[in-house]
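Q: Hi! Curious about what Dynein heavy chain linker domain-containing protein looks like structurally. Here's the sequence.
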Amino acid sequence: FYFLSNDELLEILAQTRNPQAVQPHLRKCFDAISQLEFGLLTPGEGKTAEKIQYTNDILAMVSPEGEK
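A: Let's find out. The predicted structure is below.
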């Protein structure tokens, strides 16, 4: 967390129940991780108007080059 500003660190800590809040800060923390892929709460069958809900399970780490 050395490369994060105090405001960014407080934002992460304030949203401890939402692991996806870390997504914008991953590049500053880790060189080889650009985003995390989370599991879906309920797999949708087709597109619906409902918002997609994710679990707290991390399925993959994605590099800036797109490798998983």
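A: A fun detail: The chain has a mean pLDDT of 83.
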